[in-house]
Recover the amino acids of this structure.
């Protein structure tokens, strides 16, 4: 799982009606939730990112699957949520990265 080949956001290369788009969105969301229930958080996150363009849900899926480092990457790089990224690094046991992020967050608050 990596962020290097993910799009910057969702895009629609096809001209689909709003109804078709909503049906696809519903199906993809159901599929991601099914993967998450089956314990396949990385697959769920990939669906959220690649098919739905939803980085927030992807990060939450990884967090739920206890894939804290990957969740931290999304929170930091895509969602720009330094506090949540630091929290995920703590859960991952990556205290050095967590401290660096908390220091960065503290600098932003000054």
């Amino acid at each position: 799982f990596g962020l290097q080949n993910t799009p910057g956001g969702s895009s629609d290369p096809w001209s689909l009606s709003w109804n078709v788009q909503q049906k696809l969105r519903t199906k993809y969301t159901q599929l991601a939730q099914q993967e998450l229930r089956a314990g396949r958080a990385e697959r769920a996150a990939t669906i959220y990112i690649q098919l739905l363009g939803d980085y927030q849900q992807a990060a939450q899926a990884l967090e739920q699957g206890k894939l804290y480092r990957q969740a931290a990457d999304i929170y930091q790089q895509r969602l720009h949520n330094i506090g949540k990224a630091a929290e995920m690094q703590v859960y991952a046991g990556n205290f050095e990265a967590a401290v660096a992020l908390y220091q960065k967050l503290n600098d932003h608050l000054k």
Notes: The mean pLDDT is 90. Helices lie at 18-37, 41-51, 55-64, 68-77, 82-92, 95-109.
